């Protein structure tokens, strides 16, 4: 469940204040695929930052499941993110000092859930993403598509409720982007997770259950019924 | 099994081998210096203890005569009067073997000596002809060390110099250590029976001392000794040993100050390398934080990495220090041997305390240095896009706070220096605060100077040049670390060099004033700073009447041991024409000289007054326990011959206390000073029975300066280490800056800067950093030299040293700084100039 109440966020630039998000409300009851559309600087990433607790709102509340994350302390929000959130970045952001397998196992270890069974699940997930042969490789020798698939595995491996993706295909060629997106969507649907994805690509919006369109000060919410599940 | 985050740490360190290596080496050098200095200090101390304490044996008291030997009658009458008291006669002298090695010649009574020492005993199993010791004239036993050193065996003859005379003995036994353990006292020792020792040394019916073993001296013992032999002192053995040990305290303190300075410079190296590793992995830490790793976990992760580096560096430092300590031991031993006592033995002493101390330094210093970067890593902004600008603006915003803290550091340091007195630790701490304060002041200085520089050069300089200058300001955090590291190292260089040159200038000036005689004559002494009183007055008479000699000044040097202190007393006969060679800190004047000759007053050296908290008008006791009296201090004069100092009274006055004295040194004033060389060589060859040390004025000055320079070998070495450490530090720091500026440099490339342009830009910045660090190092160096000269040295040695600004040195410091920054920056500049703009831009977020 995601509940956003009267959320506002602004930034100061010199003496000027820019309202990025103004009194925004949202309620998502069950797992959904939500796409955030908008041009650069419209506030897409700001909303994702607020949802992951990386940034704090000026006012308003954000509830993820039953936890009001906007009121959590720094360690509290980190521990919440660790357990309930998986993040996928545009530039993959794998840890270069860890192998593919260790990158994926890290969230399990952080959640103190690294055991034989969970490790096997992680291997299965990597296999599902066609990365079985790459488990011992370091990220720097993988292609962009492979790195993003590892990032997907890492975001999902600890079974979080929410997957936050910021332009996950923005740094991939068209074909690879298509493949990666389909894989991500398949797995998210299969695992019944909420996926919130910021993108410039309007074509992807047709797969979403809900689209948040950032246009200037307003966030327009549209529903595509029947896409999820 | 290793946790995944730990695996990432190890891989992270392995993926940055150069920086990891530098950090490890930084810790290793710090531990190496600290432990080496400790080992050298402890070893020399232990060697002294072994060679002195062992020979003093189990004695609780000693009866000595500061003015010379004891009559053997004293021993005989003591034995008669106190038959149950354990006592043993001893003749002990420092000697020089044929090959120049210093050794101890000791004469004992084998029948009475066993409760005191385990040198020789009548053991039928050891096949030694002990009876020869008292039946064959010249028979001696030598230690295994000497036998091996000189290649002599039983029945061979052995020659050595004692009190300037060449003596001979015949080897009748080789001393072996019965316990099987290594006993260093056996390395350089010649033992014989007391009567044989008297025969060999020509001191018939005389003893050096009488050893007593009794916790409580019998009633009436002290009275008996003072009544019958008033010149003598009864001293407790422990206090005598302590007194001798305390002589080297100041020297060791100074050594410690130098090693501390090197450690502080090392701290900057460790800080900057760890900072580099954190910067390099900054993005990874951000990602980890995004994945849910807490700030505390990131901090621990960084500190674990630091601990790994520290443990590795400490191990290397420990092993290297222990294996290479011989060099340091020899350097310290030779100085102590030169200046304080004949320390013939060489011991490697590595105490658990030193190891623990080195471990603490090696493990804790990096952890302290790593705390700040670890904190930074954990607090790194998770809003990736604005990461860098946040850090830099934070640093710039904190400048007023840093400046205020810097001023606070200076104020506290000033107060500490003012109140430190003889608590040297406080002075060290103040020096540390000055360095920290200086580091905190650097951001302000950089902003101020770069601003002024830009203002002045705006119209006339190229864009590239202005970019280089403003780059220093915009990357303030890194700039400050590298600048401070370099400036502190160069300042250490200036500080130590100024101190040494100030010291040297002072000593040279003093030598010019104090040494006026044309020729100096003394008996060869084992310890260069102390002249034993062994010359007969007959020699003085002959030399005074020598053809071409106008007149002679002379003195007798005695050692009074009391209250754990050795008090050096000079009985000096000074011609009124030479009064002017004494420069007084306070007191002095005609009245003092009149009182001096009449025996109403004494004059003491600056160091003597300092060490004993004395001032004009205070009184000191000179003489034996029963014959001495108090003398009022009429003058305190500058003297740099020893840090323990001495009190001087007129020669005749001292003789009136101790009876007839022998002479330690004679200064001859010639009718024609130009004939000094000729007369000196005539005197040398004219006295065949005693090897006189005859030196002309120039020779003795050169000799004194040579000893002075030898004293500073280790200081120079530590100074060199400080510069090496700083160089590595600046290299590491500059590499970190280039790495962090990757995106900016890539942007320049994308804008059309050629590789050459970029290389030039980076080098402009490095040269500017070098120049700024060089300029900044001068005030810090002057402050450090001020603390070293006026506080640490003054409080360690009690000397007033000249503080002489040396503009050539400052110019040299700026050049060293600019050159170091330039050389250290070449590699990172080449590396970054080669960066592919597309790659660098893509890599950054």
Strand and helix layout:
The complex is a heterodimer of chains A (229) and B (845).
Chain A: E1 2-13, E2 16-28, E3 33-38, H1 44-52, E4 59-64, E5 67-68, H2 74-84, E6 85-88, H3 100-110, H4 116-128, H5 144-156, E7 162-166, H6 174-191, E8 194-199, E9 210-215, E10 218-223
Chain B: H1 4-15, H2 17-56, E1 61-64, E2 70-71, H3 72-81, E3 86-97, E4 102-108, H4 131-135, E5 139-143, H5 144-150, E6 157-162, E7 165-175, E8 189-193, H6 194-201, E9 206-207, E10 209-213, H7 221-228, E11 233-236, H8 237-246, H9 249-280, H10 282-290, H11 295-339, H12 352-378, H13 387-397, H14 399-420, H15 424-457, H16 463-474, H17 476-514, E12 519-522, H18 537-544, E13 549-562, E14 565-573, E15 584-587, H19 590-598, E16 601-605, H20 606-611, E17 619-622, E18 629-637, E19 647-650, H21 651-658, E20 665-670, H22 676-686, E21 693-696, H23 697-711, H24 713-740, H25 742-751, H26 755-797, H27 807-833, H28 837-843
Parallel strand pairs in B: 4-8, 5-7, 14-19, 16-18
Antiparallel strand pairs in B: 1-10, 1-11, 2-9, 3-4, 3-6, 3-10, 5-8, 6-7, 12-20, 12-21, 13-14, 13-20, 15-18, 16-19, 17-18
Helix pairs in contact in B: 1-11, 2-9, 2-11, 2-12, 2-24, 9-12, 9-17, 9-24, 9-26, 11-12, 14-15, 15-16, 15-17, 15-26, 16-26, 17-23, 17-24, 17-26, 17-27, 24-27, 25-28, 26-27
Tag the structure with descriptive keywords.
heterodimer; A: alpha/beta; Rossmann fold; 6-stranded mixed β-sheet; 4-stranded antiparallel β-sheet; 6 helices; 29% strand; B: 845 residues; alpha+beta; disordered C terminus
